[in-house]
Amino acid sequence: MVLRQWRGVKPVAAPTGVTISTRLSTTVEDERVLDRVGDHLGRLRRADLVRVCQPVPIDPGLDDAARHQVRRDRLNARKKALTAASSSRWANAVIAGNADQYRLARDAQYRHMIGLRAAIATLGKRLAAPTADTLSVAQRKARRAAKSTTGYATQAERFAKQQRLQHLRGELARVQADRSAHRVHVVEGGKRLATTRHHLHDAGLSVDRWRQQWDAARYRITANGSPG
């Protein structure tokens, strides 16, 4: 493959991986076996995901080499336990999938924290300004002319926003604590679908139909291929 150097464009190497998609014709017995395998691997994956999302803190007094060794020992212990309950290839797939899930959750946690800080800053600026119902007509005109921060319309709205600000500050404190402890919260199958279970009538679903969607969202069989 020939790569050309264009102005302002960085050359990118050709892809090296291969992806093969296909469909399998399965019998009733095959589907029964796959369901059993998916159910078994799902239990193993979720149990390992709990340990990944709520890691035991490492002693901060250890140096970099010791901390690296602790992480390595924990990873080896996880792989050993998963291999004993399945196989080495299944264990690698579970560990890799949970690592990706944890990384995505950490990214979402960071974006949530940034959004909370922005909302708190916005509310703080508007709460610092007087409400419109406490100003005279001349004062309101002067504020518009100065293009200063506009307060809320009424005292009642300001009070509601103060409550909202307290809630956001509490939420931010909780997220920051989780961030410092490297702890994330993940719902296997999706938080939205889990919440739908309490509003089946509004979603137009029966319990059996919701259970089918829930099981399908949590059903995943993955095995990492070997280089050969």
Q: Any overview of this molecule?
A:
The chain has 228 residues and is mainly alpha-helical. It folds into two domains: 39-182, no CATH class; 191-228, no CATH class. The protein is 64% helix and 0% strand. Helix 1 packs across helix 3 (88-128) and helix 2 crosses helix 3 (88-128). The radius of gyration is 26 Å and the shape is elongated.
Shape call = elongated
Low-confidence stretches: none
Radius of gyration, whole Å: 26 Å
Query: Could you tell me the strand content as a percent range?
Result: under 5%
Quaternary: single chain
Average pLDDT number? 87
Helix residue percentage: 55-70%
Cα end-to-end separation? 24 Å
What is the total number of structural domains? 2
Instruction: Count every beta strand, where a strand is a DSSP E run of 2 or more residues.
Output: 0
Q: What sequence of helices (H) and strands (E) makes up the elements?
A: HHHHHHHH
Largest sheet: none
Outline the fold blueprint.
Blueprint: H1 28-53, H2 64-85, H3 88-128, H4 137-146, H5 155-180, H6 191-196, H7 200-203, H8 207-218
Helix pairs in contact: 1-3, 2-3, 3-5
Summarize the structure.
The chain has about 230 residues and is mainly alpha-helical. The chain is built from eight helices and no strands. The protein has two domains: about 140 residues, no CATH class; about 40 residues, no CATH class.
Key words describing this protein structure:
single chain, 228 residues, mainly alpha, 8 helices
